[in-house]
């Protein structure tokens, strides 16, 4: 890929929906990818005739923020905006029509009801979509789409702040979760385990404020297992947060496709449980042998570098891994003639 792949970035589309990367917060993955892709001298070409892939640099976060009328439950204007954009590049350039958009891609991380799978289903059906909401039941297609890691970037200038955690011998909390009661699963988790066992630090929302955020981070740094239940959608930023703080992620989300699954064996550094196993959560974790836990935690530390953003991309970091998955899926789609 590093020696071959060339990408053309469409200049069409106006800010803030297009060309404006959001580098901080819950949906920062799409912003960091956009920023680094726009600045890449290695992969980006100015002549679209030399490109293997075509990037449509829109932000699903800014699409929602700019066009959605709060509490209207009406997404017609969002769909229309993307429809007009795709029709414009199809009319202006020859590249879309020759493949039906199959060599075009977008990167989107907004996870609510206005998420990218729905809004792009009709007008960008054949495009490769790198999505945080990698749910096979709502339009995510294996072999074409890419499961994008959802990274909660707390400091845009330093995305690696507070990286790492305690060594295994100093992780004295068996399992930790704290967060909002989004969706149907988290209330079940909290009802089952909150204040039920001193080794199971399962909470609801933590109070606002810096001290609370640091308490949340310190719990992750001191826990053996970090519980990552789905919210409204199948994805959760806690999966990458756990890896960031070197805590073994326990993913509880049926129908979720883990990020970068084309490359990684997630069983080597995470526990994936069906939602029905929440009542047996402690029993399952306690039954994991010490040697198995040590191997999982070492696996987390080994893959950690692949889930990190850098101001200047490093080989095998999250920018390269995401682009590789997009390129891999495009190559996979091409049928021999």
Automatic annotation (TrEMBL):
Exostosin GT47 domain boundaries: 2-287
Keyword RNA-binding: no
UniProt-listed Pfam families: Exostosin_GT47
GO CC terms: Golgi membrane
Subcellular location: Golgi apparatus membrane
Membrane topology: Single-pass type II membrane protein
Record keywords, A-Z: Glycosyltransferase, Golgi apparatus, Signal-anchor, Transferase, Transmembrane
A GO molecular-function annotation: glycosyltransferase activity
Family: Belongs to the glycosyltransferase 47 family.
Protein name per the record: Exostosin GT47 domain-containing protein
Source species of the chain: Linum tenue
């Amino acid at each position: 890929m590093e020696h071959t792949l060339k990408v053309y970035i469409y200049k069409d589309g106006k800010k803030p929906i297009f060309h404006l990367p959001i580098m901080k917060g819950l949906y920062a993955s799409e912003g960091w990818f956009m920023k680094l892709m726009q600045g890449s001298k290695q992969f980006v070409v100015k002549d679209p005739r030399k490109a293997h892939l075509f990037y449509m640099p829109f932000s699903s976060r800014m699409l929602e923020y700019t066009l959605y009328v709060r509490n209207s439950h009406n997404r017609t204007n969002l769909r229309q905006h993307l429809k007009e954009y795709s029709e414009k590049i199809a009319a202006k350039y020859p590249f879309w029509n020759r493949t039906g958009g199959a060599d075009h891609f977008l990167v989107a991380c907004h996870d609510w009801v206005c998420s990218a799978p729905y809004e792009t289903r009709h007008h960008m059906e054949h495009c490769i979509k790198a999505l945080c909401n990698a749910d096979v039941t709502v339009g995510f297609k294996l072999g074409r789409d890419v499961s994008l890691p959802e990274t909660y970037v707390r400091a845009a200038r330093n995305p690696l702040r507070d990286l790492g955690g305690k060594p295994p011998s100093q992780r004295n909390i068996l399992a930790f979760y704290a967060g909002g009661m989004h969706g149907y699963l988290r209330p079940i988790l909290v009802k089952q385990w909150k204040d039920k066992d001193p080794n199971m630090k399962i909470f609801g929302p933590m109070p606002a404020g810096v001290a609370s955020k640091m308490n949340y981070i310190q719990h992750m740094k001191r826990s053996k297992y970090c519980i990552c239940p789905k919210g409204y959608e199948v994805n959760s930023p806690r999966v990458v947060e756990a890896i960031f703080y070197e805590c073994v992620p326990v993913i509880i989300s049926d129908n979720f496709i883990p990020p970068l699954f084309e490359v990684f064996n997630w069983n080597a550094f995470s526990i994936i449980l069906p939602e029905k196993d929440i009542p047996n959560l402690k029993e399952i974790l306690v039954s994991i042998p010490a040697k198995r836990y040590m191997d999982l935690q070492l696996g987390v530390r080994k893959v950690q570098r692949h889930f990190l953003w850098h101001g200047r991309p490093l080989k095998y970091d999250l920018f390269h891994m995401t682009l590789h998955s997009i390129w891999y899926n495009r190559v996979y789609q091409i049928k021999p003639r």
